[in-house]
Amino acid sequence: MAENLLKGDGAMSKGIDFNKVKPSKRTLNEWMWAYALVAPTIIGLIILNIIPIFQTLYLSFFKSGDFGKGNVFVGLENYSKMISDPQVWNAVGNTLKYTIIVVPATVAIAMILAVLLNSKIKGKGVYRTIYFIPMVAAPAAITMVWKWLYNNQFGLINHILSKFGLGPVNWIDDPKVALISIAIIGIWSTVGYSMVLLIAGLQEIPKDYYEASSIDGATPVRQFFNVTLPLVSPTLFFVMVTSIIQAMQVFDVIYMMIDVTSPAYDKTVSLVYLFYNNSFKYADKGYGSAIVMLLLAIIMIITVLQMKAQKKWVNYM
Predict the structure, then answer these.
(1) Which residue, among 66, 115, 143, has the nearest Cα to 235 in the 3D structure?
(2) Which of 3, 90, 94, 138 has the most C-beta neighbours closer than 10 Å?
(3) Can you list the alpha helix ranges (DSSP code H) found in 206-284?
C-alpha cells in the first residue's frame, strides 16, 4: 500500500495527468465493438420512441386544419380543453381501474404458475408453451374468440351458467360488467409472458438457499415467502413495471369489443381509445396528441414512484 502511494506521489510529482493518458489500441477496439453492438438498440429507441415523443409534443400545440392539412398553432388551447373535458378524466379513471384489476391478478397468477412449473413435474415444457400461446397470438383473433364466448345469447360462458340455473349475463354491453370482461381478456393474454420472465428469475436462485432452509426445517410455504420472493424480487419488479405500462396503453381489446354507440362505452373507454377517436375519427390530431402526453405523464409518475418504492422491497443479490 505504501509502495503504491509512493508510486502515485512520484507520478504526481512528475506532473502526469492520468485523465489525459491515451487508451491503448486494444481498449479502443473493445470500445468500438461495444458501441457497435448497442448501436442498433440505441438507434431503434431514438427513431421509434424518442423522436415520436417530441413530434407528439410538438403536434399537441396545434389544431389540425381542413382535410388534415395546414395545422394552426393554438398554444396551450388543447391542454386547456383537455383539463376541462370530463370524458378525458373519465377515460383516466377507466384506464387506472383496468390497470388495478389486471396487473395484481396477472402478477399473482404468473408467480404461482412460475413456481409450479419451475418444480419437478412431468410435461412442464408443454404447460409453459400452452400458457405462452396467448402472448404470440394475434390480438384481433383473441378478441374475436372472446367476443363469441361473451355472446349474450349463444356464448359458451352463458351456456355454462345456464347449466347451473344462472341467467345470461350481458358481458359486453352491461356498463357494470364490461370493464371486468375486458380485464379478464387482458389477464388471460399476458399472464404467460409474465410467467416466463418469472421462471427465468427463479432459475437464477442458487439451490443452496433452499437446501439450507430445508435443513433448518423450513416448510415449502415458508421457503416461498422467505427465500423465493426476496430473491426473485428484481424480476418481479421488472414484471410489475412493464405490466403497468402495458395495461395503461390498453386499446385493441376495447376497440374491438366496445363500439362508440355501446351503453358500456363511457365505462370502458381508455385514454388510448380516446386518443384514437379524436385523432383519426374526428381528425383532431392536436387534441389527440395532448391526450397522449397526459398518458405519458401519468405513466412517468407511476414509474418514478415505483422506482422509489423498489428500494424498500427489492433485494439485489
Answers:
(1) 115
(2) 94
(3) 207-215, 220-223, 229-248, 252-257, 265-268, 271-276
